[in-house]
Amino acid sequence: MHAIVMREYGGPECLVPAIFDCDAANLLEFTNRQIVIARVYEPKLWTRGGLAHALYCGAVLLGIGLYFGKMITGAPAAHLLLLAMVPPVLSMARGVLRLTAVMELLPEWKTKLLADGWIWTFLAAVVPFLALWNTCVALFTRQIRWRGIRYELLSPGQTRILSR
Q1: In CA terms, which of 52, 71, 115, 130 is 20 to 30 Å from 22?
Q2: Cα separation of 107 and 114, whole Å?
Q3: What is the pLDDT at residue 7?
Q4: pTM given for the model
Q5: Terminus-to-terminus CA distance in the chain, angstroms?
Q6: In what order do the strands lie in the sheet with 149-155?
């Protein structure tokens, strides 16, 4: 199954547009659920993803912290801020590439995609912080809520319904 899913993951036919309202609480519920599922079904991938997001967030926060620390002492610090911004800028560039690819795959959605294009660009820099939060949540729980039903994922082959 894993080989089939991984082979088909990158196909354009897997890209399905969905329009729905999403506030911060729904976003956190959705992303937490996805990472909890990843922890149960793909623990090695979940671990590697968590490590990658921790390194990204750590590098950015450390760079910003060092920048302010040097600035307070009066030492030159612009280079630290520039280095700290490299990962977010590269993430934003990847967001632009993602937007371009999706517009090519879904030309009928081009107007809507361009109207919300800033999301693909600017939020790409902060998504690793959200993913790190989701990874931390998944570290402490195997419970998810989907369509109003609470589940506990005991193993890849066993799920318990907690409440309806």
Answers
A1: 52
A2: 11
A3: 52
A4: 0.82
A5: 29
A6: 143-146, 149-155, 158-163
